[in-house]
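Student:
Attend to each token:
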Amino acid sequence: MQQTDKIDILASEFSPFSYTGFCSSCGTEHVFTGAACSASLWTILAELTGNGSFCPNSGNGQLSTDFLFGQSRGKMFGVMKCLDTAGGTHYLKAFSGQFNGLWQIDGWVPPLFDVDMWIEVNSPAEKAIKELGEEIKFCPDGSDLQKKIRRERKILSRALMKDLQSLYRVINFRKQVSTLHDIFTGREGIPTGTGDCCAPKLFNFAATHDLIPLAISEFFWGRENRSGTRLHGHFYPPCDEKCRPLLGFMLCGLEAAHARRTS
């Protein structure tokens, strides 16, 4: 694995960030600033580096962390420390998007949608889009037929994206449920990948399972992304474009949950 010294990198970058967002439901700017999850992070990093697999005993080569240092490059990971209603401590972990084609891996929090439903919606449409792509290859460049097929593929792709985004269910700490389309009402569309980052996955799981978040950290692991904005071993705050609009709704009710815990 092409890795640099995790201790040197992480020691210089290790610091918590604020997680904020405006909630149109209650008209409040919610803020969560938790201490960084140092102890649990080292456990996660040991799994990623020492074992070289998400599930070391599974024998599933698809879970090898070598994938993160190849052509597909690295990805974001997140860790959250929570308390349950009895005062017990829990550590949650998440990865952004898919890992080597997998949406779900044992021991990691799930996405914000039903994976079986996602596959049911995505598979036939994706197949049709690929078939149109093949047809385009056999059309004369710039021909009316090629332009027509390109338009058909674009329309189908947009419809698929809208259908997939409608599957996401976002839950906050008041037990309210919303959709991406509701949360992004009035904005210029929903950015691709919205809801797939670590923070939304972690907060969503905590709210769903009556857990109170105390701390969160997100870091990038693997080969740097193509734009050079994500570097191996560095910590990053939630993204403004995709995460902050969600966090405004998702954090609603967390302040009250913390107040009840300390009262």
Q: What stands out?
A: The CA atoms of residues 161 and 192 lie 8 Å apart. The chain has two domains: 6-109+171-262, 114-167. The beta strands are 19-23, 28-32, 75-83, 89-95, 170-171, 177-178, 212-221.
